[in-house]
Amino acid sequence: MQITFLGTSSGVPTRSRNVSSIALRLPQRAELWLFDCGEGTQHQILRSDLKMSQISRIFITHLHGDHIFGLMGLLASCGLAGNVQRVDIYGPPGLNEYIQAATRYSHTHFSYPVKVHAIRPGIIYEDNEFTVTCGLLHHRITALGYRVAEKDRPGTFDVEKAKALQIPPGPVYGQLKRGETVTLKDGRVIKGKELCGPTEIGRKIAYCTDTIYTDGAVELAQDADVLIHEATFAHQDADLAFDRLHSTSTMAAQTALMGGAHRLIMTHFSPRYAPGNSIELKDLLSEARAIFPNTHMAYDFMTYDVPRRREADGLGGAARDNQGLKTLSKS
Questions:
Q1: How far apart are CA 127 and CA 176, in angstroms?
Q2: Which of 306, 49, 318, 60 is nearest to 201 (CA)?
Q3: pLDDT tens-digit profile of 142-152?
């Protein structure tokens, strides 16, 4: 699971930061999931190592322009390229009407199936590997946060140990790999868990923007390997945050702390904190780290490979997170 930040500015783009979008690459299934699609997202994808043809799901938090104005252009380009199989789009009520109107007035015709899902809080997608849930945030219009949870998997199957126990190969190996208990023809009862390494704990990612501090975001962040949370304003500008229902850096840090997240990556920064101003982005980072030390600041094209956790790997949260620091890099 690899996260790529395609846009990390709030409201309007700047020379170095585009508006909101992140990509979650799932290399084991050659899929790309997008979260929000601000104006220019397709250009950002073209400048990255991501493949537009792998886009299969798009999750929209809310219908403000800096989160959706790139959606129609991206969908149209995917159709012209002719190599996208199907796109499922998830978002709040009104998203389907927006896409239908844009399609009608621009005379756009998709050459592939596009399915829009109007979602409510709860599980919105599930397969044999992942569960995606959404929850309400607190913004000026209906806004949703997302949580992607990878399902736990049995540890590596010890084939040599199975051979030493004279377990005949075949379908029984598959059962044991899944951790099941099997009764052999000779009457022996074999527990699959005893032939597998430590359970691979499924990774969890939470994405929360736009919102002021809210219990809904804390719930989505529970035990997340990484929480991606907006930090539009500095703590000193909390009045602006409350007025516009956005978060400060300290609110993002409090959400990570209360949710027990392992890492916080802040995004959606106001252009007012450009270098040379009285408050700069480095000040927002310092504010957040005073509350939640394992905080990082996203920038466009930053990638992060989410490390796996094992049931008995001997790594505490801090050690595991320090290990993951090596994966924060420019694309």
A1: 22
A2: 306
A3: 999 999 999 98
From 36, 49, 66, 152, active-site residue: 66
| C-alpha torsion 231→34→307→287, nearest 10 | 0
Average pLDDT over residues 11-26: 96
Asked whether 16 and 301 are in contact (CB, 8 A), the reply is no
Known binding positions: 62, 64, 66-67, 139, 210, 268
Q: 256 with 220: CB under 8 angstroms?
A: no
Q: What is the mean pLDDT of residues 79-85?
A: 78
All domains of the chain in start order, with CATH? 2-153+200-305 (3.60.15.10), 159-194 (no CATH)
With vertex at residue 16, the alpha carbon angle to CA 270 and CA 74, rounded to the nearest 5 degrees, is 95
Measured CA to CA, the distance from residue 84 to residue 165 in angstroms comes to: 48
Query: Can 66 be counted among the known catalytic residues?
Result: yes
Give the annotated binding-site residues for Zn(2+): 62, 64, 66-67, 139, 210, 268
pTM of the model: 0.88
Q: Return all residues near 248 (Cβ < 8 A) that are at least 6 apart.
A: 231, 232, 233, 234, 235, 237, 238, 241, 287
Cis peptide, bond prior to residue 210, ω within 30 of zero: yes
Beta-bridged to residue 78, according to DSSP, are none
Residue type, 297: M
